[in-house]
Known about the structure:
Elements: E1 4-8, H1 21-30, E2 35-38, H2 48-60, E3 66-69, E4 72-73, H3 76-81, E5 86-90, E6 94-95, H4 100-108, H5 114-121, H6 125-130, E7 136-138, H7 150-168, H8 172-185
Parallel strand pairs: 1-2, 3-5, 4-6, 5-7
Helix pairs in contact: 4-5
Amino acid sequence: PAFIDTHCHWRTPGFEYKEDIDSGSRAAARGGYTFVNCMANTRPVCSSAAIAQSIMLMSSLTVPEITLVTGEGSSGGALAISVANSLWMLENAVYSVLSPEGFAAILWKDGSRAADAAELMKLTAQELAACGVADRVIPEPEHGFTGDCTAFYRDLREQLIEEVELLSSRSGAALSSERYKKFRAIGDCRS
């Protein structure tokens, strides 16, 4: 069983001296947390070393790993969480290793062309499922998450249980090997 912090607020750029994703993750683990869900209003600093260590660790784990992108998954942290047996996305989620603004600034030296960049990047759940990055696109409640979402969460729970049972039938070595091969195969999403 996991102990989950669903309301994690890590420090934002400019406050790196206080906490980054690496030090925050270590502190959470020491406190008994096995999962943290960083809130959308924070942008934790991800060091390259922490991302590389996360990828190495997640590649070697011998238990099923499922990543669910619920909103915006971007930056190097997105790369780190892609090392999973199954990567699921809510239908309106986006996922990339660079923001469209950053992509536009690098490619065209003009961050205001973020919309053009987003179209090229193929970062929607549907686009990523079409090119094999996302394994499953989860339909969201018809009226969003503002009303009663009991049926949505019940269905999601059933899907997760089914996936965990399926993945748990494989050996730890097979799970790790499949994750590694899946991660290495992520690539060409050109249409």
